């Protein structure tokens, strides 16, 4: 797989988590609280500005789902290895309301996540 591009979003940002499978995987399934290894790219919903990408660092990232933002904790379980999923995450499930301390607070975020491994 190669780094995905995220097209500009249109319309108002959703108030709920939106999960869209781009490619359904065929491997092990990610489970809540499990370990995942992913490649991902994240952009701001309104501006389309990329704020983070594992692709640009040239390596995947591995972590327990329980340590991630709520939108990932809810949006990744059920994915299968070799799958690609788009998550549109409102602020409440990301970094909280504007002024919450994180530069991404108050923003709706869009991620495309490739599941490399799950256990």
UniProtKB/TrEMBL annotation:
One of its GO terms (molecular function) is peptidyl-prolyl cis-trans isomerase activity. It is an enzyme of class 5 (isomerase). Its EC number is 5.2.1.8. Residues 33-119 form the PPIase FKBP-type domain. Keywords: Isomerase, Rotamase. SUPFAM superfamilies: FKBP-like. It catalyses: [protein]-peptidylproline (omega=180) = [protein]-peptidylproline (omega=0). Pfam families: FKBP_C. PANTHER family: 39 KDA FK506-BINDING NUCLEAR PROTEIN, FKBP-TYPE PEPTIDYL-PROLYL CIS-TRANS ISOMERASE FKPA. Belongs to the FKBP-type PPIase family. This is Peptidyl-prolyl cis-trans isomerase. It comes from Corynebacterium glyciniphilum AJ 3170.
């Amino acid at each position: 797989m190669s780094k995905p591009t995220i097209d500009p979003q249109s319309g108002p940002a959703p108030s709920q988590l939106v999960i869209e499978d781009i490619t359904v995987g065929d491997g092990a399934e990610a489970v809540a609280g499990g370990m995942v290894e992913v490649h991902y790219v994240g952009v701001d919903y309104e501006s389309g500005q990329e704020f983070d990408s594992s692709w640009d660092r040239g390596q995947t990232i591995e972590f327990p789902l329980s340590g991630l933002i709520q939108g990932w904790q809810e949006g990744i379980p059920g994915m299968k290895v070799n799958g690609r999923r788009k998550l549109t995450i409102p602020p409440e499930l990301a970094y909280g309301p504007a002024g919450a301390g994180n530069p991404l607070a108050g923003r709706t975020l869009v991620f495309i996540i490739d599941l490399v491994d799950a256990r």
